[in-house]
Amino acid sequence: MQSYALIGHPLGHSFSPQIHARLFALEGIDARYDLTDIAPENLAAQMPLLRRHLRAFNVTIPHKRAVIPLIDSLTENARLYGAVNSVSIDSDGHTEGDNTDCNGFLRAMQAANIALETSVCVLGAGGVGRMFAIECARRGALVTIAVRETSLDKAQTLASEIETLCGKRPRTCALSELCGHYGLVINGTPVGMYPKIDACPVFGDFLAGVDAVFDCVYNPSETLLLGRARAYGKKTAGGMAMLVWQAAIAHERWHGTHFQEADIARIITDMERALTEKERGL
């Protein structure tokens, strides 16, 4: 039996073991997937054990950046985003760090039939917001980065980075100033995440003027943002799709697997159902 794990700290409830168990079953691989809580001060000391006992592992906060100097090589995506969420280990113990969040996002958008080649408003300029903005700009989107007034300097810095990478500078604005039409709005902030489920990152009737909304938050399964968008009849996609797809892409990199979209869709639906039952205390 092959061994895999998710490392992070602290590790509370996670859907990762369930998701990866389903993916291993689709591949016909006999494997176990554990949650391995490693405090930041112990990460370096634990790396030799991870190399020795695991076939591959995933990485979550707070180790996505801290693990980089401890592994042997990085993929292009890991270098671009300065963060690793997946590490493969070959038979010689060589480790390669990857970032599958970006491709997980792209596959989730593709599966939801949501186009990125449009006017896109990204809410937030932090780690995941930065990734969303860059990926959309790389695919020809007209990007607006909307943030709290206290984060406008960060948004401007990100806009300059994207201008260097893609040749076109995104517009930046405060969240309170958002108006007009967008083909897609992407929430790259934790606003609306459990337990603060009554929060929404946008105000008023702004959502009436958009075509589609993606929220990276997956708990709750329907955030207030997505609920309001659906009430306006907009196309929506939630964070569980990205969570499952980034895991599937890690498996594709680890094993050379190609998953059918319908199989991944079933896992997403089942995980959303499990989350809803958990929310209801069933």
Task: Walk me through the topology.
Blueprint lengths: L1 E7 L7 H12 L3 E7 L5 H11 L2 E4 L13 E2 L1 H6 L4 E4 L5 E4 L2 H11 L7 E5 L3 H12 L3 E6 L4 H15 L4 E4 L9 E4 L24 E4 L8 H8 L3 E3 L1 H17 L5 H19 L3
Parallel strand pairs: 1-2, 1-3, 4-6, 7-8, 7-10, 8-9, 10-11, 11-12
Antiparallel strand pairs: 3-5, 5-6
Function: Involved in the biosynthesis of the chorismate, which leads to the biosynthesis of aromatic amino acids. Catalyzes the reversible NADPH linked reduction of 3-dehydroshikimate (DHSA) to yield shikimate (SA).
Keywords: Amino-acid biosynthesis, Aromatic amino acid biosynthesis, NADP, Oxidoreductase
GO cellular component, one term: cytosol
Describe it.
- The structure is a single chain.
- The strands form two sheets. The protein has a six-stranded mixed sheet with strand order 2-1-3-5-6-4, sandwiched between helices. Strands 9-8-7-10-11-12 form a six-stranded parallel sheet, with helices on both faces.
- It is built from nine helices and twelve strands.
- Helix content is 39%, strand content 19%.
- It has two domains: 2-98 and 241-280, Leucine Dehydrogenase, chain A, domain 1 (Rossmann fold, 3-Layer(aba) Sandwich); 103-238, Rossmann fold.
- The protein starts with a strand and ends with a helix.
- With 282 residues, it is α/β, with parallel strands linked by helices.
- Residues 6-87 form the Shikimate dehydrogenase substrate binding N-terminal domain.
- It catalyses: shikimate + NADP(+) = 3-dehydroshikimate + NADPH + H(+).
- Its EC number is 1.1.1.25.
- Belongs to the shikimate dehydrogenase family.
- Involved in the biosynthesis of the chorismate, which leads to the biosynthesis of aromatic amino acids. Catalyzes the reversible NADPH linked reduction of 3-dehydroshikimate (DHSA) to yield shikimate (SA).
